[in-house]
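Re: weekly structure request thread

Next one in the queue (159 aa):
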Amino acid sequence: MIILGIDPGSLNCGYGLLQVQKRRIVAAGSDVVKVSGDLPLAQRIALIYQKINEVIEEYKPDIASVETIFYGKNIQSAFTLGHVRGAILLALAQAEIKIVEYSPLEIKKSVVGNGKASKEQVGYMVQKILSLKEPPKSQDASDALAAAICYYNKEKFYW
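Done, posted below.
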């Protein structure tokens, strides 16, 4: 089974992949889709959609674990993130991949044990859980792996 974790972002969209065999994580990888803030929003969304489709085509995930929107004080950022998430969810749905969604708090609690954990704490625990020699390339990639780990932690006993 391959789990695709996604940390949506309009400039940096992280994704992480976990390969699971017999209830054990046997491989992990991550990266970030980076788009220029100078591009209009529609073009950024199109690039993210295209890249997520490429990831789906290459890795053929069985399930996607997507982080939900964090409701901060900036409503414009929430709307922008909503557009990005819509494109990501569309790509996953078109590929007929099962989608689960978790809040940032739920993901942090699953990985660190504390829903209020810092991004640094999440990155540290992702590195330790997956026995990575180096931390993921960025916090976005780390958060995406954390989303995949969250699904793994919640579902591994049901396989």
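The first strand starts at residue 2 and ends at 7. Helices lie at 41-59, 75-94, 104-112, 119-129, 139-155.
Next request, please.
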